[in-house]
Amino acid sequence: MTSEENALLYTAAQRQETLDRLLAALATDERIAGVIVVGSGSVGFEDAYSDVDLDVVMYAADDVAPVCDAWTERIRAMFEVWGQFSTNYAPDSFLRGFLLANYLEVDIGFVHLGNLQAGKWRWQVAFDRSGQIEAIQQRTWAERQEPDARAAYEHAVGGIWHYVLHVAVATRRGQIWRALHDLDAARLLIFELAGARYKLDVTRGRQADQLPADFLSALEATLPGSSAPGDILRALRAVTVCFFEQARAVAAMIGSEPPDALAERLQTLLDRWR
Fold it and tell me: pLDDT tens, 156-182?
């Protein structure tokens, strides 16, 4: 981290102080069975840019919503909060994210014991009044399902023609930003296939940088050099080639017929519209 960044961003000491304050405060709420530090924070943080991730576990499902609401307000009172997001996964499973005044992100999940599942391979139980959390984490992580390569393949191959066609048509219509939007969507299908092929979690690009270097190098050609129609169509051709390379590899992996006929038909269209 540069000296300029040091003057702007939180320090490692400030991040640890924030984590310690949160854990001490959460431990005073008797409705909370325990708290888990997840992600790199459970092993001392990955680097100077790592944020704070917690799972707050309630004994009872009925307590999840009120505890989430109460602690959302309490955190805003404890810290200077610049930004906040809210995601509700279920009536008793919530995520709240906070941007603190020193650019530190704090993400807190709220769930009850009955729904607790290990979602990341790194965690540390900060405290546990129930005596059950570590065992639940270990069991649910061991029982987790491997990524479904067949489902990823069927989803990607079933959708690629839609985006290729729409990028090509939008470009010819002069709808540049629609074309660029759908070009990004087509590229994400390539990541989905590559994630299934190499057994990496590429959701929101989490492990995308761990994909093979030759794949990532080929993927660079799918980035348009500009918003000019010619650049978009060149990038679309690269997307199509890269997609079907991954699709053929995954098809072989799952014992499915490769989508060669679809690849040929899409390529014919793009060649005509070159």
Answer: 999 999 999 999 999 999 999 999 999
Q: Is 2 exposed, middle or buried (0-12, 13-18, 19+ CB in 10 A)?
A: exposed
Cα–Cα distance, 137 to 125 (Å, whole number): 9
Residue 52 in contact with residue 15, Cβ under 8 Å? Answer: yes
Residue 207: alpha-carbon gap to chain centroid: 9
User: Residue 227 contacts by C-beta under 8 Å, 6 or more apart in sequence?
Assistant: 176, 177, 180
- C-beta separation of 110 from 58 below 8 A: yes
Place of tokens 């405060």: 25
Domain 149-272: top CATH class: mainly alpha
Over the stretch 35-53, which tens digit does the pLDDT of each residue have? 999 987 767 777 888 899 9
pTM check: above 0.85: no
Contacts with 147 (C-beta within 8 Å, 6 or more apart), sequence order:
195, 196, 199, 201
Please state the domain extents for the chain. Answer: 3-142, 149-272
Architecture of domain 3-142: 2-Layer Sandwich (3.30)
